[in-house]
Amino acid sequence: MQTTLSIIKPDAVSKNVIGKVIERFEDAGLKIVASKMIKLDKEIASGFYAEHEGKPFFEKLVNYMISGPVIVQVICGENAILKNRELMGNTDPSKADPGTIRADFADSIDANAVHGSDSEESAKREISYFFKDDELFLR
Ligand code: GDP
Ligand code: MG
């Protein structure tokens, strides 16, 4: 069993597709074990995306991530990290396979509906960035 961090980004929240995104996880056998709706501020969003600091899109990314509320979740299941990445699809929705979350719900590489941890190491860091151990309801 693996855990991974998922964020339903501001564009998907404002489009009212939170349920549809969560349904993708559940239909794939992944379980939500922690969940909250929050509005990130500049410091929290910058720290979360620290790996991208200095890249040309960094400021735009941070400003977008603080533009509205997000759903931060921990999802759990067999091979959850890779499974979630497959459900999400390519970072650029125009390149994402049909039927993936980004192909179906995202508008652009900037507003691309979801975040998902990309490795065990980043999942560990990202989960603890938003949740304390006792906030995970591992079943
Ligand atoms: P992800 O793991 O698929 O979300 O992609 P990355 O970790 O590489 O990048 C984080 C986020 O930054 C992406 O989801 C995009 O919203 C944004 N991003 C990444 N690469 C680019 C880029 O080349 N141009 C722009 N405008 N945004 C990007
Ligand atoms: Mg990433």
Plain-language structure description:
The protein has helices spanning 10-14, 18-27, 42-48, 58-65, 80-88, 101-105, 120-130; strands at 2-8, 31-38, 70-77, 114-116. The chain has 139 residues and is of the alpha+beta class. Strands 2-3-1-4 form a 4-stranded antiparallel β-sheet. The longest helix is centred in the last third of the chain and has 11 residues, at 120-130. Guanosine-5'-diphosphate binds next to loops.
Task: Please compute the radius of gyration using only Cα atoms.
Answer: 14 Å
State the strand order across the main sheet. Answer: 2-3-1-4
The number of distinct β-strands equals: 4
Q: Largest sheet, if any?
A: 4 strands, antiparallel
| Low-confidence sequence ranges | none
Shape: globular
